[in-house]
Write a structure and sequence with these properties.
The complex is a heterodimer of chains A (391) and B (306). Chain A has 391 residues and is of the alpha/beta class. Helices cover 45% and strands 20% of the residues of chain A. Chain B contains 11 helices and 2 strands; from the N terminus they run ααααββααααααα. Classes of the chains: A alpha/beta (391), B mainly alpha (306). The A-B interface holds A 45-48, 50-51, 54, 176, 181, 195, 197-202, 204, 206-207, 209-211, 213-214, 216-217, 230, 233-234, 237-238, 241-243, 258-259, 261-264, 266 and B 1-2, 5, 8-9, 12, 15-16, 108-109, 112, 117-121, 123-124, 129-131, 139, 141, 143-144, 210, 212-220, 223, 255, 258-259, 262, 271-272, 275-276, 278-280, 282-283.
Chain lengths: 391, 306
């Protein structure tokens, strides 16, 4: 514990020092006209998927508070998980608030509605989560950075893990919408065995009795599924009830810290892939986990870690360049010189992360369900679309 | 596809149909007797699930939770009827939709305020967990069987209540002619509150039972509400019998569509495309069913009024 605490102290002192230095430098450069960076955060804070947006916000704001940089202003608005609301908010933020940077969107369909317009108007967009393939390939843009991953990554890692484990026949399942189809194709990109059956469920479906019967009947070696949020909770509870003895693999979304308590013991032992876990051993991560628990009295989720890293990336760029000089600021972002809670972190040519992706196992620790890293599925993984991006 | 799998899927369809019936019964009664469109019916379903999860977590007993869900939803229904709904009977359907939509928002944000934004934990009680082997070697979840039993019991109880009791007579009379029953000296206000609370209790019970195998979270009621509306449109607005038949039709069509359509398309298409097309069509199946029923019988299968 003492190690973690000194870590925090050292870090706060360090950040304070850096902030003051940066402040002093910027004052010298611009003759006491340091321009604050205005950030517009659009995320989901009410309705069904609110827990994801709340964790994103809390992670982001934790980093902002820890840095204590007076030149950073954050406006937070709730998109209610509705694309039209998100577009309206981004228009408002760009036109009347005159923000420099937008961030925070959780869902890919909302990102597709907001990001292309925002970056065309010269604003930076830093993605805390959603990273659809369209924005990684032909639709990439110099002002768009994904700090989280490319949407396919965690599914690809699950495919690689299934291959490594020697699962010969897999039953694969995802909801019938673009991210679900990307999920199954991402999985198949690195899975070398045979697909016993692939099933598309309805988006928002909550009863999986029919699918579970099909899985039981298929005689597959293992199951891969991608069912984010409430869909995953429902599925896992029903899966446990059915008592089928079959290994389960999935991306982290159904096993992240925000929903694990709702699934309960049914989740224990499930393997899931993620680029972050609370037990990644580095100073930045230890400080983040401890500070998050202290401030919010709960364990951080993947989304909180992504929000935190996004804010830290932004702060690192602010120390090096002024946001009014877009080219210099972009270069500073691209350099990604911050201590990521994931350890190694760099941007690929399409400004999506190149990073390790881990296999985690759900465990019960001190009466709480959480994840523990058991293997590394992919090292320094970029994404499948970087080649299509001409930037 | 094997016969065992087919029978298992029929049971699944029956189970989801009966839960829909619990939702639709209240909705159709309220519409039939009071002429009110209640969009907040899904919120009462959510109230039931949250009450069950809250009480089960506090006491450790699922059964106390289930009782609490029925009581809480009925109480919420009665309070809402007296405070808000009562003022809406004489008004236009559009006003009713607007006001009950506002209730959805109030219930959702109120629940978030009380319980937070994170989904709650609610699991099957130990006495009903696991699966049993039915005749013919079908493995089936014990809790789902219990849900089927509970759904059937409620359906029978509801038919007896409507068909054989004094309150039932008043409800049916209310459906036929509101003014006349008031003129005959029945306390119509009390009757309305009673019917509304009964519908709410059924929704709350469905919320608790379904929440146990699915997830307990804010906003869980609205998707079910849409299905319940489909059910009462198919069954005929105001008819309990229609609600039962409609719910079973919707439950079976939905479940069997999801299972059978992809494999039917698989006969003449490549697997990946077949599952995608099959799944897309399966999600439309119940609406196609509704359209077909409305073409043949514009008032629904058992509709009193066309």
């Amino acid at each position: 514990m003492t190690g973690i605490k000194t870590g925090i102290h050292r870090e706060t002192r360090m950040t304070r020092f850096l902030t003051t230095t940066a402040l002093a430098l910027s004052m010298m450069g611009t003759a006491a006209m340091a321009e604050p960076v205005k950030v517009g955060m659009i995320t989901t804070l009410s309705g069904g998927g609110a827990s994801l947006g709340i964790d994103t916000r809390d992670g982001f704001m934790l980093a902002v508070e820890k840095a204590g940089n007076p030149d950073l202003e954050v406006h937070i608005e709730d998109d209610q998980r509705k694309p039209e609301v998100a577009v309206q908010l981004s228009d408002e933020m760009i036109q009347s608030e005159d923000v420099d940077v937008l961030t925070g969107i959780v869902w890919s369909n909302l990102a597709m509605a907001v990001v292309p317009g925002a970056v065309r108007q010269g604003k930076f967009y830093l993605s805390t989560n959603a990273a659809p393939s369209q924005l990684a390939g032909k639709g990439c843009h110099e002002n768009y950075f994904s700090v989280s991953y490319q949407n396919d990554n965690l599914h690809e890692a699950a495919g690689q893990y299934a291959t490594d484990e020697g699962f010969g026949r897999m039953f694969i399942m995802a909801p019938n919408y673009p991210a679900g189809q990307d999920s199954l194709s991402g999985f198949k990109r690195f899975y070398e065995g045979e697909v016993a059956n692939e099933v598309y469920t309805q988006l928002g479906q909550t009863d999986y009795a029919a699918e579970i019967a099909q899985i039981r009947d298929s005689g597959a070696d293992a199951l891969f599924f991608f069912l984010p949020g409430g869909m995953g909770i429902s599925f896992m509870k029903q899966w446990a009830e059915a008592g089928i003895d079959m290994p389960v693999v999935g991306p982290a979304f159904s096993f992240s810290q925000d929903i694990l308590p709702a699934i309960g013991e049914a989740a224990v032992g499930v393997k899931n892939t993620a680029q972050w876990s609370k037990d990644i051993d580095n100073e930045a991560n230890a400080a983040f986990v401890a500070a998050f628990e202290e401030k919010y009295d709960r364990l951080p989720s993947l989304y909180a870690a992504q929000g935190y890293d996004t804010a830290r990336l932004l702060l690192s760029a602010m120390e090096k360049a002024d946001v009014s000089d877009a080219d210099a600021f972009r270069e500073a972002l691209r350099a990604a010189e911050f201590d990521s809670v994931r350890g190694d972190f760099a941007f690929g040519p399409n400004q999506h992360p190149v990073q390790d992706i881990y296999v985690r196992e759900v465990i019960s620790e001190e009466g709480q369900l959480t994840n523990k890293i058991v293997a590394t599925a992919m090292e320094d993984r970029g994404d499948a679309y970087a080649e299509e991006c001409s930037m | 596809m094997s016969t065992i799998l087919l029978i298992e899927q029929l049971l699944n369809g029956l189970q989801s149909g009966l839960m829909l019936f619990l939702m639709a019964a209240g909705l159709t009664l309220v519409f039939g007797v009071m002429g009110l469109i209640n969009l907040a019916h899904g919120s009462l379903y959510m109230v039931g699930a949250f009450a069950c999860a809250g009480v089960a977590a506090a006491t450790g007993s699922f059964w106390l939770g289930l009782a609490a869900s029925i009581a809480a939803a009925a109480a919420a229904g009665a309070i809402v009827e007296v405070a808000v709904i009562r003022r809406l009977y004489a008004r236009d359907h559009l006003d009713q939709v607007l006001a009950t939509f506002a209730l959805i928002l109030i219930f959702s944000e109120g629940t978030r305020w009380l319980y937070g934004s994170f989904p709650l934990y609610l699991n099957v009680p130990p006495s009903l967990s696991g699966s049993v082997t039915l005749p013919g070697g079908i493995q089936y979840s014990l809790f789902r069987l219990a849900i089927i039993g509970a759904g059937l019991a409620v359906a029978v109880g509801l038919f007896l209540l409507i068909g054989k009791t004094r309150i039932g007579v008043q409800v049916r009379a209310g459906e036929a002619d509101r003014e006349m029953i008031a003129a005959l000296g029945v306390d119509i206000r009390r009757l309305y509150t009673l019917v509304f609370a009964l519908g709410a209790a059924l929704a709350g019970m469905a919320g608790a039972l379904v929440g146990t195998i699915q997830s307990v979270q804010v906003g869980m009621g609205e998707p079910v509400l849409i299905l319940a509306f489909v059910v009462i449109v198919i069954g005929g607005i105001g008819s309990i019998k229609g609600a039962l038949v409609g719910a079973l039709l919707v439950g079976l069509t939905d479940t069997m569509g999801r299972v059978l359509l992809p494999s039917i398309f698989g006969l003449f298409m490549e697997t990946s495309a077949a599952t995608s097309v099959g799944a897309a069509l399966a999600s439309m199946a119940i609406y196609i069913l509704m359209a077909l029923v409305l073409i043949v019988k514009p008032g629904g299968l058992f509709g009193a009024r066309a």
